[in-house]
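Standup notes
- DV: blocked on the single-chain target, sequence here:
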Amino acid sequence: MPPEKKDRSPVALEQRDVSADQRMFSPSVARNSAPILAVLKRVLPTRGAVLEIGCGTGEHAVCFAGAMPNLTWQPSDPDADARTSTSSWIKFAGLKNVLAPRDIDVCSGQWGVEQTGHFDAVVSINMIHIAPWAASLGLFAGACRLLHAGGLLLLYGPFMRDGAHNAPSNAAFDAALKERNPSWGVRDIADLEHVGEAAGLNLRETIEMPTNNMLLVFSSGSA
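- DV (later): unblocked, structure below
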């Protein structure tokens, strides 16, 4: 892959409304929360700790944590506005199993949560296609460090299979992303499998989701 410019700028590809208490509202979250939650309920343990990378508005965090009260949810995002929105959503929802959002740069060798112990799952939704390839590498490396044996890395978004898009709309989306930033783009499942295998994370399941998205489930070692 070509050399990348180091760009940590926060990205939102949609117009978000903001309430007086600084909660942001994401149209894509309103559409995808229910189908993602259905998968999470099936694959995640009933108890444990989950780290979310790129929590955005925080709506996913409170939705999923509210539906799975025996899981402790640790949201994170490098964008200060996203963390403010997430904190406001946590307060608004009154949930005790969602921790204060952390500032995590996935390209860093240390994420600042290592001291809290290992996680049962790392979840990243609609992140790796709006970040440089180095972010994908960092995400797998961090998951390898932080997951329990048998822990899961879950990636949601648009993906290619062996260089082919699964819909013309995704091909157009990929082209638009690369026009905006050449280091972005819809990632190929085969490339992610190779990175995962090098990090000790094996692709366990590929789940077709609405609107031509997928949810990839990687597993760390053996349970």
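- Follow-up: The chain has one domain: 29-220.
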